[in-house]
Design goal:
It is built from 6 helices and no strands. Helix content is about 75%, strand content about 0%. Helix 2 packs parallel to helix 4 and helix 4 packs across helix 6. By secondary structure, the protein is mainly α.
Length: about 170
C-alpha cells in the first residue's frame, strides 16, 4: 500500500511542475508573440481605466453623502440658547472624538465636529483647533462639509486656503 506522504509529495511535485510549465509558457509567449504583448498592454490599460472610473464614482458618491449629511444637519436645526449651545457643542465634540478613533466612522466623526462648529461662537478659531487636534482623514471630510455650507460664517480669523485640500473641483 502506498503511503499518504508519498501521494502528497507526488501531488505537490506535479502541481509545482504544472505551475512552472505555465510560467515558462507565459514568458515565452510574452517574449515571442507580438499579439500576446499587445493584448497584455490592452488589458493593463483597460484595468487602469476601470480603476480610475471607480475612483471617480466613489468621489462623486462621497460628495453626495457629504451634501446629504450637511443638508440633514441643517434640517434638524441647531440650538439657539447659550446653555443649549454649550451642551450641544460639548456633546458633539466628545462624540466626534470617540467616532474619529474608528477609521470606518470618518463621516460620522466629521459630521459631529461640523455640528459642534455650527454652534461655536467663533468657528474660525475652532477650525484652527481642529487643524491641530483632529485626524487628517476626518479633517478632509470636515473641510468638504464646510465648503458645501454657504451659511457658515467663518469670520475673518481663518483662511480657507490654510485648510488641507478637500479635493473639491
Amino acid at each position: 500500500m502506498v503511503q499518504t506522504s508519498t501521494i502528497l509529495t507526488i501531488s505537490a511535485a506535479t502541481a509545482a511542475t504544472g505551475i512552472l510549465a505555465y510560467a515558462i509558457y507565459f514568458d515565452y509567449q510574452r517574449r515571442v508573440d507580438p499579439n500576446f504583448r499587445r493584448n497584455l498592454r490592452r488589458e493593463e490599460r483597460r484595468q487602469a481605466r476601470a480603476e480610475k472610473e471607480e475612483a471617480v464614482a466613489q468621489t462623486k458618491q462621497k460628495r453626495k453623502d457629504i451634501q446629504k449629511a450637511v443638508e440633514q444637519a441643517a434640517e434638524e436645526g441647531f440650538p439657539t440658547g447659550v446653555n443649549e449651545k454649550e451642551q450641544f457643542f460639548m456633546d458633539h465634540v466628545q462624540k466626534g472624538e470617540l467616532l474619529a478613533a474608528d477609521p470606518s466612522r470618518t463621516m460620522d466623526a466629521a459630521l459631529a465636529f461640523y455640528k459642534a462648529l455650527k454652534v461655536y461662537p467663533t468657528p474660525g478659531d475652532l477650525i484652527s483647533i481642529y487643524d491641530k487636534t483632529v485626524d487628517k482623514r476626518v479633517l478632509d471630510v470636515l473641510a468638504e462639509m464646510i465648503a458645501y455650507d454657504k451659511n457658515l460664517d467663518l469670520g475673518t480669523s481663518i483662511n480657507l486656503s490654510d485648510l488641507p485640500s478637500a479635493g473639491l473641483d
